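Example record used in the benchmark description.
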Amino acid sequence: MSELMTDQMKQVIGWLKMNMLTLNVSKTNYMIMCNRGKKITDFDCDIEIDGKIIKRITQYKFLGIIVDDKLTWKCHIDYICNKISKLIGILIRARKILSISSLTTLYNSLINPYFTYCINIWGNTFKTHLQRLEILQKKIIRIVTFSKHDAHTMPLFHKLRIMTFKDMYTYFSSSYIYKCINNQLPPSFYHGFNLSKSLRNQKNLQALYCSKISCRSSLIYSGHIMWNNLPNNVKYAKSLNSFKSKLKKILLNYTS
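Model output (structure tokens):
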């Protein structure tokens, strides 16, 4: 295994040199990915690049997303929870002088981006991981609205017109699928989202099946269920802005 990987890396280095590029070996690592139930300690191997052995890692932060070798997204959610927990203290101090409207603005500008950044990638992982984010969001909504710690939060979400974490996943993931099937993204993104051949359901997606849990939680395999359950007037929206507007009204449970 080590010899094979080292040989492959030599080819990569050769290609880079031919194209006048260099690889920073000190910042280069490798990750072996597999299902949660499998142990991969036996696959440790020494991979060399220009005579230097590169390190094996189990997680890596790439463009703001922490990817782990089991694709559970637990490390990324830990990171988000840590960041949001620190910001909750700011909200608690700020509500001594700010109104609900101003506190809502603080939530939307400081905290909500942590929930929504690339949510369509990791936002459908195991419920045990996502539950921590949902609890934090409910805590924040109670703080913003000056509510009791055990207050029912759904009326508060509706009052502030703020989407729950689950609804945010639906909103951003459905918007992504809309762009895919309406050719608003590069062609490489269209894989997995194929429209139905049925004349009655032309805007529905064909179902894809996978036996692995990690695959079933991904947007490519779960997205068709989410999309096909949307009302037809939303799926047939003539523009992305119109689609988002109609979908948001449904998720926030209010009508114009």
